[in-house]
Write a structure and sequence with these properties.
Its EC number is 3.4.24.-. The protein is of the alpha/beta class. It is about 45% helix and about 10% strand.
Length: about 675
Amino acid sequence: MSEKEPPAKDESSADRGQGGDQGDRKNDGSQRSHKPWRTEGLPAGHGDDDKPRRPRWWKWAAWIVGGYLVLFLLTTMQDQMSGGEQTIAYTDFTAQVQKQNVAEIFARGDTIEGRLKQAAEVPGKSGSTYTKFTTERPTFANDNLYGDLQKGGATVRATPVVAQRGVLVNLLISLGPFILIAAFYFWLFRRSRAGGGLGGLLGGGAGRQKKPVDPSTVRVTFADVAGIDEVESEIEEVVDYLKDPEKYRRLGARAPKGVLLAGAPGTGKTLLARATAGEAGVPFFSASASEFIEMIVGVGASRVRELFGEARKVAPAIIFIDEIDTIGRARGGARSVGGHDEGEQTLNQILTEMDGFSGTEGVVVLAATNRADVLDPALLRPGRFDRTITVHAPDQPGREAILKVHARGKPLAPDADLAALSRSTPGMTGADLANLLNEAALAAARQGESQISHRDLTDALEKVQLGTARNVVMPEEERRRTAYHEGGHALLGMIQKGADPVRKVSIIPRGRALGVTLSTPESDRYGYDVDYLRGRIIGALGGMAAEQEVLGVVTTGAESDLETATRIARSMVGRWGMSDAIGPVSILPAEGDARTAGVSDELLNTVDEEVRRLIEQCYAEARRLLRENRPKLDSIAAQLLEHETLDEADAYAAAGITHAPPTPPATPEPQPAPRDRA
């Protein structure tokens, strides 16, 4: 499955046709929203519903003005009281000068302010003294005041003795605390919006979410998705209901309340959910399940309530919860602490909200997971997630369609064959194919090419599947041993009936491997028989068998081959009933210890014996085939030592084998892992 990146200035016909004018409207409110979900296609006028209630500013203004007046009066009175200057007559001042009791003065015009050395009695007020004073010097006074002050040792200053704050300074001081308080509450208000309430404040910003994307430029439809024909037919009923709910209501039918999209990572579950909303032309609310969880218990549940409430306002709509297994795991396990942890409360709220749907609101919940086996049964019962859709990796036609979607906007050379590339990529998902084309484009750009050639595509596939080539200089003996090792893999893949064709053989170190042999089927396979699986084991053991037959040694290079062979053999014996000694019984679980399911130690020992017997038989068969075809093995090894890498045609030519593509099997299969020599 794949997505085409929409042009920045293009309003797609799907948005205009399928979604009406909803897809083209700007959701300005969603642009400013800090809720833990993203929205697409909201109708006009609904973007501001999620704004927090505005405070009553007139009350705030009244408190600020009143507080300012009180603080201003207090600071002014403080200045007046702290000054403590006594207004005295000029004659009293001159008397103190004659007594040489003046310590310092400040003169500004005819106004004199100063301080006495010793306190003097206030004239006319018995028992009241003063030290600081102020007086006015008459303009007709004709005395030698400056000389008298100098005789008494007084200091004459050009600045005030007591520095007083002016009205402007008092104004700033009185307003300063209120400005700081107002700024703090404004920050607190914005922080609470960004963090979803108390959890965002106390969680250290953990609740801060990305802003919603512009809904007018991100809507996608099924035209932007490829390789999901069977899934599209399953979900088309949901799309049809959202487009025309009245048709179903007349017959008393209701749409599924929830649809669970299950599949491996990269198969396009999120893209499918977006395309469903875009195809139906309804608002789309998307969130990751982990975004509901906070340290503060109750935050997740409140966010769920708010999300479902917003969706009901603009119904019909789609709510999409990605990675729902984060909060939807089966309850009652070791992760629960008394059954009241934040994850369980959030899950309970989701269940409650879905129970509140009558089926006529037009709100459908889509969820995605790659671990459907761990979900709580309460989520999957009818009335909640009524339908489970499995999204598989695409088949060959689907991969070709996906490659064409991702090739839009990329200049391809005439020799670029996307059909051939799709046949070489069984098991790849839409994300893998998108990455493959991107790697090819990067490679072409590095080499200064104007178009992406088929060589760039194959080099990118080689890099993705086999790893990046390492510049390692191996000793000649090591190169020869590696050449025979990879030659053994390749030759057994060529001569075994029904084996996957050999696509490439290389002794260039890549990743952790010193050499790689890549084999892929002509077409996808889904079913395995005993002969094919035995051939896979024989092919995996071909490198080790070649080393022992030719060089008489066994090296650590067969480690990954032995792991592959053992894994296949254990599945054949313990899971698929392909052993006569065990019979048609599944013994080994996909995960965990078989003993917990009641399997006895004796039966497990029998499984081990059968696995060993099967691998030993396959190893003996591999050595026999290589002995009988030793000249072909020597020829492949010689060509590898000379050219280091052999393509499909060169490899078959080196072995002297005519390659005739086999008839495609009735049922297709995921790509086998490449055999390598670590």
